[in-house]
Amino acid sequence: MIGDIDQSSAIRLDGVTARLGDTVALDDVTLHLDDARIAVIGANGSGKSTFARLVGGLTRATAGSVRVHGVDAAKDTATLRRLVSIVFSNPDAQIVMPTVAEDVAFSLRGTKASKADIAAQVADALDEFGLTALADRSAYELSGGQKQLLALCGAVIRRPALLIADEPTAYLDARNSAAVADHLLHPEAGHQLLLVTHDLELAARCDTALLFDGGRVVAQGAPDDVIAAYRASLRA
Ligand SMILES: Nc1ncnc2c1ncn2[C@@H]1O[C@H](COP(=O)(O)OP(=O)(O)OP(=O)(O)O)[C@@H](O)[C@H]1O
């Protein structure tokens, strides 16, 4: 078990193809993933984001089935979206409320928690992400690294079963990347992590890795082995 997650029903793709316009972005992919922290690597256009979007319920499979923590992505998208939080590379696109505290609280909209309970949860989460001093600041005035921590804070406060992060450190400098990585890879995070990244050092810190090429998974297993396979393919 990872927190409350049932390992027997983590991420399952069976014969999944995703056609986007004229492109076959994923080509007959079968994967059963139970690890806590999964890195997804591969060249530009290899299908990583399409895979992440399918698992997150943002893209539909053209063929095959996608199940995430027991939920069939084609049949119950609403439940899937409640189970999953997604963080993208562009932190600006993820801010929805004027201040930092309001933006985090927005993630708890629709829950049955009282105002006082929400305020307490937001205060705890801001503290965890080192954002307490910025609570009343305009979210738009934060640095890129602070914005990405804010996005992660909002994603995690929902207590998702699965956190999908699609190139979350792409626009960050080394120091901010390290801060975001430490939060992402926290070993007791309580959720499964699916991390799409071009940062191979980050991928190496996960529990398992997948290598995509041309819409297919061409290597899967221990991150060091999969990264070595990727490096070899780049030299070929
Ligand atoms: N909305 C779309 N319409 C048509 N083709 C698309 C669409 N989105 C992605 N594709 C194509 O699907 C393929 C896989 O794209 P995807 O974004 O999944 O790759 P990626 O591995 O995440 O790439 P990157 O590392 O550049 O983000 C590419 O050939 C891409 O051009």
Describe the structure.
The chain is of the alpha/beta class. It has a domain of 164 residues: 3-Layer(aba) Sandwich (Rossmann fold). Strands 6-7-8-3-9-10 form a six-stranded mixed beta sheet, sandwiched between helices. A four-stranded antiparallel beta sheet has the order 2-1-4-5, with helices on one face. A hairpin with a 2-residue loop joins strand 4 and strand 5. Helix 3 runs parallel beside helix 5 and helix 5 runs parallel beside helix 6. It is globular and about 50 Å long. The N terminus is likely disordered. Bound molecules: adenosine-5'-triphosphate. This is Biotin transport system ATP-binding protein. One of its GO terms (molecular function) is ATP binding.
